[in-house]
Specification:
The protein is an alpha/beta fold and 204 residues long. The protein has one domain (3-200): TIM Barrel (Alpha-Beta Barrel), CATH 3.20.20.70. The protein contains nine helices and nine strands. Strand 2 (38-42), helix 3 (48-58) and strand 3 form a beta-alpha-beta unit. The radius of gyration is 16 Å and the shape is globular.
Length: 204
């Protein structure tokens, strides 16, 4: 599958910061049961790579994506851990070359979109979405970049997600509200599944 196909599977991509490997599989099962198949596991913790391996092995219906990928080394390690593709908060030269798995570079300006499109990219992470201009900025980018599609992330929650999803150049949004840290710490998988169901209903 290509990046656009992955991003079209669910309207919301949960952004997961997993501190304990034992939380990975039950968390993934709750999100998938709620209707969210694509899961971004951020490389912000020591448990991240093992969590990706765990989800890939124990929850095969989930599509694992690596998040916070900022180097070619991160990308290689994520691919070995079972990630199907990756998200980055920014745009770097290694992302413009073919890697072990596809990567969604982060863009916030027209210049960054142009650089990535020149290398063949057509799908991007718009980050940080709300501080970078939110819905208004994405509407403005749609004019000169009709072929570009985005997954806005950063400052998006249950209150504003639908506004972003209503835009024709938005494939999905990323957000952490569907997997709150307190719910993960408490093992409240039923609450997370309920949040996922509400998020999955936010269709364009």
């Amino acid at each position: 599958m290509d990046l656009r196909s992955y991003l079209a599977l669910s309207p919301v991509v949960p952004v997961l910061t997993i501190h304990r490997v034992e939380d990975a599989a039950p968390l993934a099962r709750a999100l998938v049961a709620g209707g969210l198949k694509v899961l971004e596991v951020t490389l912000r913790t020591a448990a991240a790579l093992e969590a990706m391996r765990c989800i890939s092995a124990e929850v095969p219906e989930a599509i694992v994506a690596a998040g916070t990928v900022v180097s070619a080394k991160d990308l290689k390690r994520s691919a070995k851990a079972g990630a199907r593709f990756a998200f980055s908060p920014g745009l770097a030269d290694f992302m413009l070359e073919e890697g072990p798995i596809p990567i969604l570079p982060g863009v916030a300006t027209a210049s960054e979109v142009m650089k990535a499109m020149e290398a063949g990219g057509r799908a991007f992470k718009f980050f940080p979405a709300v501080p970078a201009g939110g819905v208004g900025a994405l509407k403005a980018l749609a004019g000169p970049f009709a072929d570009a599609a985005f997954c806005p992330t950063g400052g998006i929650d249950a209150a504003n997600a639908a506004d972003f999803l209503a835009l024709p150049n938005v494939l999905c949004v990323g957000g952490s509200w569907v997997a709150p840290a307190k719910a993960i710490e408490a093992g409240d998988w039923a609450a997370i599944e309920a949040l996922a169901k509400a998020a999955a209903a936010l269709k364009k």
